[in-house]
Amino acid sequence: MAENNAAQHGAGDLILIGWREWVSLPGLSSTPIKAKIDTGAKTSALHAFFIEPYEANGVRMVKFLFHPIQRDTDTVVECHTPVVDQRMVRDSGGHQEMRYVVKSGFMFGGLQFDAEITLTDRDSMVFRMLLGRNVLANRFLVQSSASFLLGGTKKSPPRKVRGILPVQHLDIG
Fold this sequence. Notes:
This protein is mainly beta. 2% of the residues lie in helices and 42% in strands.
């Protein structure tokens, strides 16, 4: 019988996170974004509206606006970034949508890395960002019954969850 022990499955170097966490996208916004962890999503998604493609010096670019703060439509960030791709994406309701894909720097869980993000209108959704498997794989282990294990926007100590202490603590505020 196989044991369900994360350490025995090579998860010893993974950072424990909750089902929602704060993430920073320094290339796009100085405001941290509350993100929902979505292990069912292949690629991460960011709330964006007024998405306008254009070309600059032979490079495909996209301009978009987004609200980085949950339930706050007054705070708006304007972004200009290169387009990596356009892909057909199926949402959790089974609807297909053509989305622009951009690459952004991430600061999350004490790590800094680049990853792809699809742009979509998430205005009717609670979370402005979903973190998909492209960000999570080989970096993070999700504790689905916990939230904000990496800290919040205010200084708070890391929480112990069933005997497992998060590897890193991220103070954003």
